[in-house]
Amino acid sequence: MKKTKKEPSAEPPYKLLDLKVSPVKKWAAGIPAVMAAFSDLFEEGVPVRGTRALFSMNQRGGFDCPSCAWPDPDDERSPVGEYCENGAKALADEATTRKVTAEFFKRNSVYDLANLTDFEIGRMGRLAEPMYMPENGTHYQPISWDDAFKKIADHLNRLQSPDEAAFYTSGRTSNEASFVYQLFAREFGTNNMPDCSNMCHETSGTALLPTIGIGKGTVKLDDFYDTDVIVIIGHNPGTNAPRMMSALEKGKKNGAKIIAINPLPEAGLMAFRNPQQLNGVIGNGVQLADLYLPVKINGDMALLKALELLLLDFERKSPGEVFDHEFINNKTAGYEAFIKQFEDYELDKLAEESGLSAADIYQAAQMLAFKKRIIFCWGMGLTQQPNGVDMIKEIVNLLLLKGSIGKPGAGVCPVRGHSNVQGNRTMLINEKPTNEQLDRLRDYYGFEPPREHGYDVVRAIKAMHADKLKVLFCMGGNFLSATPDTTYTAAALRKLHLSVCVSTKLNRTHLIHGREALILPTYSRSDLDIVNGEAQFISTESSMGIVQSSKGILKPISDDLINETQIACRMAMATLGSRSVVDWQRYANSYDAVRDAIEKCIPGFENYNSRVRERNGFYLPNAARDGNFVTAAYGDRAPFSLTSVPDNTLARDEYLMATTRTHDQFNTTIYGLEDRYRGIKNERRVVFMNQKDIDADGFVNGEKVDLFNYDDGIERIAPLFIIVAYPIPERNTVTYFPETNVLVSINNVVGESNMPASKYVRIKIRKHVPEIFEQVEKTQQRERRNELMPV
Questions:
Q1: Domain termination residue (choose one: 414, 429, 453)
Q2: Residues 97 and 242 in one domain
Q3: Nearest CA to 128 among 153, 157, 152, 99?
Q4: Nearest CA to 670 among 683, 658, 679?
Q5: CA dist., res. 193 & res. 182, Å (int)
Q6: Cα-based distances in Å from 644 to 242, 353, 357, 390
Q7: Its pTM surpasses 0.85
Q8: How many domains does the chain have?
Q9: In terms of residue numbers, what domain contains 540?
Q10: Of 630, 664, 207, 217, which is closest to residue 421 (Cα–Cα)?
Q11: Three-class DSSP category at 719
């Protein structure tokens, strides 16, 4: 009898560790952050190698942090260390000398590896050589680089259409690699370029482009130092962008007020102990938030409308002192229609829908009313809401009323996640390129790029299911763990003819693969990159539009690694051969040559090779930052947008769930098992709940429960979680991803941007029963048969 191949699990194992709960922290950073940063270097066995690299990270002439995209200061940088705790963890993770070799894969099947936690998988070490999974195989086996590229080329060239392939990009990919990667995809003939922006800030660009004329933020770092009010909404700087706290500290010392809006009272919103200053070591540091508003999940729109209603009332009582009518008359469109809507709103009703008191909202409105220099910052707490585009448009509305955009100390600041996710988009990693962008490629290279829009992440997953995608090439990232609806996505990945992952470390996407699969190891940001005997540097773009150089210094852990630019170029040469009009070998040999091409094809990169070598790099053009709004529908004016307040009514047994990450995690990479600021240690399978909800529904703090979602009529189950009582709005819950990605329906997306709405998931919570694992197994069996049926 033929044996059935055991399928590896698409989810982390359902096992509990040893949960320790301590009091919630009321401040972030300080000496514990320093100790945590260096402890990771010792745990990875690289205290000397890692420390040497840390002192080069984010320094002029050094390398860009592989973690978040917060910009480096234009003025002096700290000689002690221009990095944060999470940046140090990211560095330790990639500076490790542990290796994952062919011998490792010979000993370990993908089935066995999938039974490990994501933390355990990531601790295996750096990938050291290219690996291949044959059809019906159980173990990866070594393959030469030439054979790997030949296999990719064979699969791509046998497709019936170029649109049967998709090329995914992670935010870690450099400008140079991103450019040649998209160039290959378009010469091959497709715009199927899903990327990590489709899951984090696609919502921001979708909202900002039609309202202010650019899909990026409008502020510089210096604006934080000299402003009146900073509003932080749906963002946790203490974990997601810790260096932001230094800018907030400086702004506070210069007189800025800070309003923090978030369902959870995150430590990084409350206070900051700067470990490089005396008061951060032996004192209490700096209190950040002057006002904290614990808004309900998706109550942000009601709050924004309430603030505007109160500002309108202030303006009527003090004409011309609250609204900037000169700015409104000269720079905006649609003001009268926008104001008229407030005849239908009541403060008490909006306050109730936001989950806040009218008094607290009034206090926030007072802080904004007579100030002009206002900065709004946001993260995925907004962008991953189903009405996220509208909420960001509402933020723009408020700033347009105040004339607080396109001026020093004022504007919008979407806080980007991965270190070059914004640069990827600038380099044309975009499934919806404009005709103008494609025309420039055509005119420079002489081939006609495809014009039809391609697949974003959600559409790509659905296309895999429908057998419309046969090959998925991932330039970095952990596609499975980053995406929603884990069961559905895993079934989609298994239908691929070939999946290819360019990676530095092992992750779960390597274990849930197509019929055939390749793992291609590459350099990390801190690695010394030598091409033809010459050390190369790459470039990246920060979340504030600064392009700067990045040059690794560490000796690579293996001689069998290839940089991402060469991987893209060699794939192009193997696939396109003589039919290509691009000199791929020239680009493979020199990043300078790639930058020369970028200069010709992308506006704002004039004299690229000269300017990127300057001390601080250079800023890309940003008309909105200069107060000039060029919008498609309104010419030189920024339009007010008309939006609505959502109905978030829940059934009696329903909760709203938002996914988040721990402090020991960056995106899908898990560095440890301590969420220090929230008081959670040695466990990830927790669900934060309000104590009143715990009591009302007959639960007990610390009890084991199972979580369910029923969107689309399909039962989705995340079994075996522990309840943790937490100061969170009633009927709201928070869990960690990727453990609860399985509950996020592929169809639960943000309007217009089509991003997964992972911060707005309707769930039911039931006491844990052992039989739940049988239900989960049945679901996974249907997954393997591609028969996900509604319940």
A1: 414
A2: no
A3: 99
A4: 683
A5: 8
A6: 33, 12, 20, 8
A7: yes
A8: 3
A9: 44-200+421-609
A10: 217
A11: strand
Q: What CA–CA distance (Å, rounded) separates 270 from 289? A: 5
| Cα–Cα dist 97/99, whole Å | 6
Residue with tokens 């899903």: 194
Contact at 8 Å (CB) between 743 and 718?
yes
**Phi, psi for 615 (deg, rounded to 5):** -55, -45
Could you tell me the CA-to-CA distances from 562 to 240, 529, 594 in Å, in that order?
A: 30, 9, 17
Going along 422-493, which residue ranges are E strands?
Answer: 471-475
DSSP code of residue 404 = -
If asked whether residues 191 and 211 sit together in one domain, one would say no
Which whole number is the average pLDDT over 365-384?
97
Q: Of 381, 414, 447, which marks where a domain is finished?
A: 414
3-state secondary structure 580-596: CCCCHHHHHHCHHHHHH
The residue type at 580? S
Residues 249 and 236 in one domain: yes
The CATH number covering residue 720 comes to 2.40.40.20
Q: Is residue 632 in a domain?
A: no
Amino acid (one-letter) located at 479:
F
393 and 519 together in one domain: no
End-to-end CA distance of the chain: 33
CA separation for the pair 249, 280 (Å, rounded): 11
Distance CA 181, CA 177 (A): 6
Indicate the range of 2-6, 125-129, 686-690, 717-721 predicted with least confidence: 2-6
CA 518/CA 521 separation, integer angstroms: 10
Amino acid 643 reads T
Beta bridge partners of residue 377, listed in sequence order: 232, 413
Same domain for 191 and 332: no
Task: Give the other-Cβ count within 10 Å of 97's Cβ.
Answer: 14
Beta bridge partners of 271: 287
- Amino acid 5: pLDDT: 64
pLDDT confidence of residue 3: 47
Whether 66 and 195 map to the same domain: the answer is: yes
The pLDDT of residue 4 is 54
- Mean pLDDT across 93-116: 94
| Angstrom distance (rounded) from CA 770 to CA 114 | 21
Q: Is 2 exposed, middle or buried (0-12, 13-18, 19+ CB in 10 A)?
A: exposed
Q: Is 39 a member of any domain?
A: no
- H/E run at residue 188: helix 175-188
Tell me: cis bond preceding 738? Omega within 30 of 0 counts.
Answer: yes
Q: What is the DSSP string of 489-541?
A: HHHHHHT-SEEEEEESB--GGGTS--SEEEEEE---TTB--EETTEE--EEEE
Residues 303, 242 within the same domain: yes
pLDDT at 507 over 50: yes
Number of C-alpha atoms within 13 angstroms, CB side, residue 207?
Answer: 32
Q: 121: domain CATH number?
A: 3.40.50.740
In this structure, is residue 107 part of a structural domain? yes
In a domain, 628, yes or no: no
Same domain, 670 and 718: yes
